[in-house]
Amino acid sequence: MSELLLIGAGQLGSRHLQGLSRVPGDNRIFVIDPSRESLVRAESRLTEVTDRNTKNLYSFQTSFDSVSENIDLVIVATNSDVRREALDSCISRGKFKNLILEKFLFQKKEDFFEVQKTLKTKNITAWVNCARREFPEFQTLKEKFRGNPIQEVSVSGSNWGMGCNSIHFVDLISYLSDSIEYTLEGNDLMQELYETKRVGYIEFLGSIQGKFDKGPHFTITSTLSEGQGIQIFIKSATFSALIFQSEQRVLFLQKDGENQLETVEPFLIHYQSDLTCKVVTSILETGKCNLTKYDESAKLHMPLFDLFLNHYKKISGNLTELRCPIT
Hints:
Blueprint (H helix, E strand, L loop, with lengths): L1 E6 L3 H10 L6 E6 L3 H10 L11 E5 L8 E7 L3 H14 L1 E7 L7 H14 L2 E4 L7 H10 L4 E9 L3 H16 L4 E8 L4 E2 L6 E2 L2 E7 L4 E7 L7 E6 L2 E6 L4 E8 L2 E8 L5 H15 L5 E2 H23 L11
Parallel strand pairs: 1-2, 1-4, 2-3, 4-5, 5-6, 7-12
Antiparallel strand pairs: 6-17, 7-13, 8-11, 9-10, 11-12, 13-14, 14-15, 15-16
Helix pairs in contact: 1-2, 1-7, 4-8, 6-8
């Protein structure tokens, strides 16, 4: 029997749980959250999954007291401010082999490096849930650009949570271009901090620009205006793709001499519950998945973390702050 542990049963955690409920085989699933309300809501959402694995056993707890000391896979889906603490508590209790962490990884820079050391010492294989690498559509898109280097990428949309979610798109560009090192600047970020629905967290609006050392220039923009879904434009010398994320379609533009051929195809955006089932099943069966390994993701996080923290310090006036309150 596989022993699975989900830490954090909030909105995202409950979707992970739906995915875990469909993992084949005999599984015991522990769900930990200090909020009984969150646990009740997460358990109720299991009823939405009509094809869940009826062999699974579940344990919903507010602490680690009843959790098995030998876990096959852990998902940490807490908010970023308590993620390091939750992970440390889990590691101190027993052994586990595999780990999936939500992003934005941490609010303090030191946590990235301390966790990296701990994972190496404990021989834990860890991935970060930047899930677009698991989309068959992006895997196919990468093949379309093979041999036709991507020169430019732009991401834009209305108020989509730049602080929390930019790492998704930086990770995607890294994946498509097979490049990790990049530089970043944020002169076009708006000179204001924006409160989120979650108390104690902030967001940013405006644009950031970057360049991968062995890859494309890119611009990522989040605007205050309402109504524009996220669009992703990917351009090479002869071929381009414009993805309309909310409409789940893509426009391909192909140069053919002096002409330009246009084709439109579906481009599915997959639910987290479906992706969790796919990823966890792959890890349990093969020890592998397509998510970004922790070490690589930490490198991709760093320029974003530094930029956002410096901007936060500048706008807040707290120049000694070490914590960037994004989640």
